[in-house]
Amino acid sequence: MSEAGQASARAAALDPELDGVTAAISSDLERARSTAALIAAARGWPAVRSVRGLRERGAGDWTGLTREEIEIAWPGSLGDRAVVGGAPPPIPGGEPTAAVTARAVVTLHRVAEQLPGTSVLVVSHGALIRLVEQHVGGDPAPVPNLGGRWVEVSRGRILLGPGAGPLANPTSRPLANRGTGPVADPSGAPRGASLEALEQAG
Question: Which domains does the chain have, with CATH numbers?
């Protein structure tokens, strides 16, 4: 992670959007782990646990290549990387979007089961966040660094909360966008967790 990314993560930790959050979990990839660790340390949360199920989709034939190298080998393929039909377009040899969605959803349910009744920061990656958003009926849009989405995970369901813009940049969105907490369960069963899925810092 760059020095600017580290500074952004530390600044994000001060954002009131995270008031009431008590822990962070991250993808096991380095920038996500570092982002979560910096925020957790600044907030005084427990050590961050990293989870493989939250990692970015596998890049297949593009792994380790620069944008320029991809454009040379697959002309025009990066020009239309927007969400198509609710999901990012396939990457040659990459992890299928259905597989990314399935592992992300399973992982979010596990986090909610392990930390019931809490609000947790989940630091992951833009494509994964957009796929979860699409899975729960949202209209996925690009997720900026340190931007996120609130979701409520309870009793086998994931509900999309209000969108959140980049942390530590209050001019980008109203702070009131934050959800008010886990969705009430009419059965009286134990609540799940309120999670903010956050894109890693740059």
Answer: 3-56+96-199 (3.40.50.1240), 59-94 (no CATH)
